[in-house]
């Protein structure tokens, strides 16, 4: 899979300094997740550390991501018995409004673990899925961005990224 990095793009689509600043502000909370079964990769996505607790000198993190990470490649309603999840970490109160600038953040899977950041506009319009809780942003991400944070211009996490091949 090719790594998608808007910072390497050329031309008018290049991310502006505000997008980069917001992405870098939130990046310490973004992790790369890979699920494996039988030693083979099943799925790779991103997640966001939403809580960190010190338990007797050991830090325990709670990561928000999508359950697709655990889904069996054979039976979508089952979780494999031998599943292993690898997590790589590299070191709001405001509600979004229609048209607000947002940034989707994730880590690419593979060797580079490059930080991905794609800006776009938040939309209150519902997507094609029958779920009123889903909103839409026009950030262009890859599947590795699933589960990563969608942040506002202040670097606050406002939603979780989902990918649809539209």
Give a verbal description of the structure.
The structure is a single chain. It is built from one helix and nine strands. With 166 residues, it is mainly beta. The protein has a single domain, classed as Thrombin, subunit H. A five-stranded antiparallel β-sheet has the order 7-6-5-8-9, with helices on one face. Strands 3-2-1-4 form a four-stranded antiparallel β-sheet, with no helix packed on it. A hairpin with a 7-residue loop joins strand 5 (101-107) and strand 6 (115-123).
Give me a quick take on this structure.
With 166 residues, the protein is mostly beta strands. The chain is built from 1 helix and 9 strands. Strands 7-6-5-8-9 form a 5-stranded antiparallel β-sheet, with helices on one face. Strands 3-2-1-4 form a 4-stranded antiparallel β-sheet, with no helix packed on it.
**How many runs of DSSP E, i.e. beta strands?**
9
Helix content: under 10%
Query: How is the main sheet built?
Result: 5 strands, antiparallel
Low-confidence stretches: 6-12
CATH class type: Mainly Beta
User: What integer value in Å does the Rg equal?
Assistant: 16 Å
Q: Structural class of the secondary elements?
A: mainly beta
What is the average per-residue confidence, as pLDDT, rounded to a whole number?
A: 77
Beta fraction: 35-45%
Q: Span from first to last CA?
A: 19 Å
Query: What is the count of helical runs?
Result: 1
Could you give the order of the helices and strands?
HEEEEEEEEE
Going across the biggest sheet, name each strand in turn: 7-6-5-8-9
């Amino acid at each position: 899979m090719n790594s998608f990095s808007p910072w390497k793009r050329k031309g008018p689509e290049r991310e502006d300094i505000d997008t980069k600043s917001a992405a870098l502000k939130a990046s310490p909370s973004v992790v790369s997740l890979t699920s494996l079964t039988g030693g083979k990769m099943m799925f790779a996505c991103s997640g966001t550390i939403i809580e960190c607790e010190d338990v007797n000198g050991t830090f325990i993190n709670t990561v928000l991501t999508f359950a697709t990470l655990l889904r069996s490649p054979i039976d979508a309603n089952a979780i494999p018995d031998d599943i292993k999840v690898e997590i790589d970490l590299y070191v709001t109160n405001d509600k979004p409004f229609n048209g607000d600038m947002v940034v989707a953040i994730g880590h690419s899977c593979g060797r580079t673990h490059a930080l991905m950041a794609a800006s776009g506009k938040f939309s209150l319009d519902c997507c094609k899925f029958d779920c009123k809780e889903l909103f839409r942003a026009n950030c262009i991400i890859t599947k590795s961005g699933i589960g990563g944070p969608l942040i506002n211009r202040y670097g606050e996490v406002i939603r979780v990224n989902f990918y649809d091949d539209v």
